[in-house]
User: Fold this.
Amino acid sequence: MHSNALIVRMTVCTQSYIQMQFNKVLVVGLGQLGLPAAKYVKEQGFEVYGFDASVKAIERAERTIGIKSAVDFGDFDVYIICISTHAPEDMSTPKIEGVLSIAERISKDAIKDGALVAIESTIPNGTSQKVFDILSHRLHVVHAPHRWYALEEREHGVNQLRVMGGVCDCCLKAGMQFYNGTANYFNTHSTSSFRTDTPTLSHDSKMSKHNSLGIPMHPVSAVEIAETTKIVENAHRYLQIAFAEELYLYCQVNNLSFPELRDALNTKWNVNILEPREGIGGHCLPKDTKMFLQSSKSKSKIMIAATHADQEYKLYRTRLNNTRSMSIRAQSEH
Assistant:
């Protein structure tokens, strides 16, 4: 009996790969991720359109970066999906129905067979295959998870080394051509990454740089690897912070200075203890950690323990803040 991963790699795309010309690009989702993506794609010389469920988001994109609002999803060479994958009522809970809904609309409206659908949203294993099936295998589907970080956009913006996987080999070739400028890469099992300044193509297969985004890419052999990469990156970060929180509580119980211990530990070349601060917040780390736990067929004891450590630390901080507030209130009354 074949494993699911093997079945995916054996999927046959109805569109064989041919060298493509990418001109019109539709970015779906113009929020924190999609807006800088649309801006970058436009700067590379492509004709960029945008779509968002929020009228305000579309107006902001038109005003700030000058992209056009898409009337429909019809005549495009590339669709970049950048929508949020959290539940509207709970930002820390994963929900991919929005991605699948967008895929259904693309399937209904898309005119060009063989167009590229690139999912940059964070998604669990199996989502790219579901999108591919919704599209009836007539469009190429890749997953190129974003690594964009708002606080360090210059160093960690759209144009940084990223991972890419395709549902089929022809999908990966189309994706690599658009993002990196090369459709011919070494064996996808290789650990080599492809940068635009690296001569990886033979003379007769070189692509013109203006028809790609020029982003360094690391292609992987199965799209599930790309899907897992993003959620593991954030689960790993969650684990690092949770350990720092646990260590902080250890110091409180044992009457040790956490800042001094942390400074001492971090003098070792392969140790980097983080600062716990107020606990693990935002939505990316909690959501993606839940996504990792939900996507696994076996329980991750260490990640479950990390979530418990974070909850315990937050409870400690809440009690500490309440005690301080009561002390300040008592002093002000005297």
Summary: The longest helix spans residues 301-333. The chain has ten helices and ten strands. Residues 4-221 form a domain with the Rossmann fold fold (CATH 3.40.50.720). The longest strand covers residues 24-28.
